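Predict structure. Chain length: 110.
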Amino acid sequence: MPLHDTFFAIFFVTILIVRIAVFVKPIAAPTIRGWRTHHWMYGFILIITSTIFQIVPMFAIGLALFVDELTFLLMRGKTHADNYSRTSLFGTIFFVLIVYFLRSSLVNLF
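Prediction complete.
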């Protein structure tokens, strides 16, 4: 399997796992000194770290964590219901498709 397809498979499976896990067991993200964390933040850290150390699978996971909450952020979602609204789900599908079409270019960054 070409690297760009492996990258996308890791990215897509990560989103599926996160979506299923959050749906089945919706737990609040940790709050650190009054600041609530979200998985997009961990994704952003993984994106930066993977870019520095040139680790494609870590980049795929980080990008998935970020993309999974991107529409939720853009729509200024607040609740679990917002995260599973039609707007949020369709937005996530839209961003997944963008990553699919850009997968070769994204992998070529490494």
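Summary: The chain is about 75% helix and 5% strand.
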